[in-house]
Write a structure and sequence with these properties.
By secondary structure, the chain is of the alpha+beta class. It has six helices and six strands. Keywords: Calcium.
Length: 137
C-alpha cells in the first residue's frame, strides 16, 4: 500500500488515454485469468472484487464483516461485470465495468485533491503513477 494524492481528473485523464488504460486492463485481465481461457470465472474474479474495498475500513484496517453479507456483495458485484449472464466475464465486460466503476469514483471524488491509501496494483494507483509520469516527462 502507498499513500497518493489524486482527484477525479487524474482518473478521467488516465481513462481517456486509451493506450495506457487498455494496457492496464489487458495486464490485469491476463493476471486474473489463471487458466488462460480468455474468461474470468467467479473464483478468478473474487480476489479483484475483494480489492475494491467496498466495506468500511479504519485507516486501512478492515472491519470484520458478516461472511454471508460478503458473499451477497461479491455475488452482486460479479453480476455487474457479467453483462451477458453466462457465468464468466470476458475482456470487454471487464473493461466496460471497470471503466464505469472508475468513472463513478471520479465523479464521487470531484476535482479537489484527496489523499488516499492505495493498493500497489490497483487501477487508482496506476492512474496516479500515469499522472506522475506525465508531470515529470
Amino acid at each position: 500500500m502507498s499513500v497518493e494524492i489524486l482527484d477525479g481528473a487524474t482518473i478521467v485523464n488516465f481513462m481517456e488515454d486509451e493506450e495506457a488504460f487498455n494496457l492496464q486492463i489487458c495486464d490485469r485481465f491476463a493476471h486474473l485469468d489463471s487458466d488462460h481461457d480468455g474468461r474470468l470465472s467467479y473464483g478468478e474474479m473474487l480476489k479483484e472484487l475483494q480489492c475494491l474495498r467496498v466495506f468500511e475500513t479504519h485507516f486501512g484496517v478492515d472491519v470484520e464483516t458478516d461472511p454471508d453479507e460478503l458473499v451477497r456483495v461479491y455475488d452482486s458485484l460479479f453480476l455487474q461485470f457479467d453483462h451477458d449472464l453466462n457465468g464468466t466475464v470476458d475482456l470487454e465486460e471487464f473493461k466496460s465495468e471497470t471503466k464505469q466503476m472508475m468513472l463513478a469514483m471520479a465523479n464521487g471524488m470531484g476535482f479537489l485533491p484527496v489523499q488516499m491509501v492505495l493498493e500497489e496494483d490497483s487501477f487508482l494507483k496506476k492512474a496516479a503513477e500515469w499522472e506522475y509520469a506525465k508531470l515529470v516527462a
